[in-house]
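Review form for a predicted model. The reviewer records the input and the model, then writes brief findings.
Reviewer: anonymous (R2)
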Amino acid sequence: MKRTKIVDALKSVDFNHDILVKGWVRSHRNSKAVDFIALNDGSTINNIQIVVDPTSMDAEALRSITTGACIGVTGTLVQSQGAGQSVEIQSKAIEIYGLCPSDYPMQKKGQSFEYMRKYAHLRLRTNTFGAVFRIRHNMAIAIHQYFHEHGYYYFHTPLITASDAEGAGEMFQVTTLDLSRTGKTGEVPYEKDFFGKKTSLTVSGQLEGELGATALGGIYTFGPTFRAENSNTPRHLAEFWMIEPEVAFLDKDELMDLEEDFIKFCVRWALEHCKDDLEFLNKMIDKNLLEMLQSVIKEDFVRLTYTEGIEILQAAVKNGKKFEFPVTEWGMDLSSEHERYLVEEHFKRPVIMTDYPSEIKAFYMKKNADGKTMQGTDVLFPRIGEIIGGSVREESYEKLVAEIKARGMAPESYSWYLDTRKYGSCPHAGFGLGFERLILFVTGMQNIRDVIPRSEER
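Model under review:
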């Protein structure tokens, strides 16, 4: 008999026929008269109830079916008389695929997320993490759907690169050399390395993405990126996924329109396609989750300059607001608490902050006419802070070279990138969105390590 997924069995109205379901036991309640097994196969947040006559199988075998065990059940699909489910299966035969000893870490009891991170390889079988990763799948589908519908091309940028897109040097090195031997003299012979030079895992596909934008018009990347940033916080990862569209002939206002439209599309997709999982997370994780998601798609995002943001923060301090990191002066880099104050307390909706001081932003951003600020466009969200970082890119060859030199970077290392400005340069813009931060917001989870399958974080 062909297996029926539990998500399909629960939707069925074709009763009184035999079906086969397979999955993992969420709970097993036994009694002398009847046993009830809650079974889940990962296709839905909802379990299907298996009703078992204890006399229909060996008593010891039935007792061995505990939480976490993997079984297959053949039985009759019937309408349920019990509360909480519309259908159930009256078991005729149970096949045991894998038993689960009593030391199974994911027993059916309240465990903290910190505890479950110790067993990240098993936590996927819990209701919460099943919901998170079904939503993660749907968000990936939404991303591809949005850009495909809008005429963008999916562009694959290299994971191993010699360029530091951010200019910050926080990169994981890739080498075939035995550095414990070759580095003893203080000189590493990179000419003997596989690529003949120093290479690292990418921190961003943006620079290569700009190559695509200046040839194809509009592209997006969606893949893993790596950052050796020593930030052990609930919002940072060493390995994470990024979505990075780059678009030719896009100005700052159009870029902000794109950022807002894209993220609203993703949130709307979650509400439409992940209803059961979101309702579960709204009940168990964040009781304001659905309301917050609805508010994002209903409200227009505030558009605010960095200078205006600093003035609001300074006024808040004068009125008694306490920040862990002081709001000192114009030119300072904003922290998450500052961003969240603007979004959660002052405006009470998402904010797109623009026109940052050039000293705190990347070399590739286009400067404004004042010579002090750059056309950056960061989207700030409730609970998250910055969820998107974007900008208009500097299209002038001379200005870009001057900026690279002013920051102590080597123009020759970016010769291929500068060629896009040297030969047929065009105005263009783009942004980067950390996929895990999007999932963090959509699911209501509190720690970014809880929205990735398994973390090797320190």
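Findings: The chain has a mean pLDDT of 92.
Further findings: The chain has 14 helices and 16 strands.
Recommendation: see findings above.
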